[in-house]
Amino acid sequence: MAVFTRKRLLSAVAVAVASVALLAGCSNDPLAEQYREGSNKNYISGTGVVKEIALENRGEAIAFEAKDFAGETVSSEDFRGEVLVVNFWYASCAPCRAEAPTLEAVNKQFAGQGASLLGVNVRDQVDTARAFEETYGVTYSSVADINDGSMQQAFGNEVPPNAVPTTLVLDQEGRVAARILGQIKDESILRTLVRDTIAEAE
Predict the structure, then answer these.
(1) Separation between Cα atoms, residue 192 and residue 198, nearest integer Å
(2) Which of 11, 81, 157, 181, by CA, is between 20 and 30 Å from 170?
(3) By three-state DSSP, how is residue 137 classified?
(4) Residue 166 pairs with which residues in a beta bridge?
(5) Are strands 83-89 and 166-170 parallel, antiparallel or unpaired?
(6) Are 16 and 48 in contact (CB under 8 A)?
(7) CB 181 within 8 A of CB 47
């Protein structure tokens, strides 16, 4: 297990600061603004720490099956052979709102390029979740995990209780290759994690 390298994190700090400033300037979302101001109201979240897992230290492939908000079955087998980014979220989570544009940007960049995104909603009913997706322009699918928590169970200790958002990068075999615990603070970090994991197959 290796923490995201100091050199790469330092190189992203300036971009992260600029990105947060830009989002703060264009947002009219009170919860997202509240989060960016550091008031820590209404949610419990991780700190955004990034963990990469070396090939030889990765566990078993994650197996899951759940229904998306259109009622269609989505399973881990649908994504075998490509990198999968899995993001755990819910609509009233301030950091989830703050990172939504980042996730959608990465989704668009890697669509058809060896990676997909999948959201896992841990709290909301269909109408609330769809309203969030429309508000933030989210085009990738999410599955509902509000009844039996099967998705959280499938990922075991990789998604600690109350640590929402959490974003996982799964390799082409379905194993967890990286984790971001808390809001994705810098788009370039997630881009790099996805790009590096795609490159492993090459």
Answers:
(1) 10
(2) 11
(3) coil
(4) 88, 181
(5) antiparallel
(6) no
(7) yes
**Stated pTM of the model:** 0.78
Interatomic CA distance for residues 35 and 164, integer angstroms:
13
Range of the domain at 160: 2-200
Extended strands (E) in 64-170: 65-67, 73-75, 83-89, 115-121, 142-144, 166-170
Degrees to nearest 5, angle at CA 34 with 68 and 12: 80
Q: How many domains does the chain have?
A: 1
Q: Which of 92, 96, 52 is nearest to 200 (CA)?
A: 52
CATH of the domain at 46: 3.40.30.10
- Rounded to an integer, what distance in angstroms lies between the CA atom of residue 72 and that of residue 151? 15
- State how far Cα 28 lies from the chain centre: 22
Q: Which residues pair with 60 in a beta bridge?
A: none
pLDDT in tens, the chain (202 residues): 444 444 443 344 333 333 333 333 334 544 445 444 444 444 445 678 999 999 999 999 999 999 999 999 999 999 999 999 999 999 999 999 999 999 999 999 999 999 999 999 999 999 999 999 999 999 999 999 998 899 999 998 788 767 899 999 999 999 999 999 999 989 999 999 999 999 998 7
